[in-house]
# Entry
Amino acid sequence: MSYYEKYHSLEDIYHWLNKTAMENPDRIKVILIGSSFEKRPLYVVKLSAISTTNTNKKAIWLDCGIHAREWIAPAFCLWFVQYSLSFYETNRDIATILDNMDVYVLPVMNPDGYKYTWTTDRMWRKNRSTREDSRCVGVDLNRNFDANWCTEGASHRPCSEIFCGEFPESEPEASAVASFLRRHKEAVALYVSIHSYSQMLLFPYSCTRDLAENHAELLSMAKEAALKIKRYYRNNYKYGAGAETIYLAPGGSDDWAYKLGIKYSFTFELQDTGRYGFLLPPSEIPRACNEALIALKTIALRVVERI
Ligand code: 0X9
Ligand code: ZN
# Structure
């Protein structure tokens, strides 16, 4: 069984990152974008084609593990990096994507929460920030972004699983990602955030029932990706605007990135639909990741045509 068919502890993932960067110095750069509440580093892997002479290259942003218990998400980020490194020479789709776009990958956006799911509480969702006025720990990082922040679908109560935090970007993890994207917003053409579970390909908005300005285009991209998953893996993924397809949930990273001007913005909810839920067995990692990969490739190729 390969390294990528298992779940890995946070320490393992940091080690993997270091090793992968050392072994691929011409393809990978590691960028420190900030640190977590408990002061763990937030590393982004910048993945590029070898011969990058084009300095105005567009980019894809991919983050995994905003929610601590969704272990398949970091597993997918690792899977994606490995796949891109291994198949650049032989897979035309991945070559087309990397020849036209760099990919910024944040494998674990919530390292403190992820660590906590390995040591103490497997079902932890939020980050691990503390506050003076409450004994409850953690903010839902996907309610902490500045997109109709803390309206219906989020909570001001620190003990809630969907606590939005004191103010938008109050959390160092959300603020590090938002600052990086603000600095790179001219380059980043596609934003993708990986979650689980429920098998959905979501796009803005989730923070309002209004339709995104390019709703029809996002819908057709998500539909094509879902059809590919169906054709290759015989699995059903729902797709649509977040507010209609899953629920109203303001303050999410996808809506915020969209409002920043990244017109192609998606949240993927990977396997399954509830049999194992967050406890997806390692034996299911390859299929879950391959499904997400084909969806990501499909959408990224459509974005390449438009940039
Ligand atoms: O509620 C969420 O944050 C996501 N679902 S999960 O079960 N992984 O927690 C859905 C996110 C959809 N996008 C936004 N709400 N912006
Ligand atoms: Zn999630």
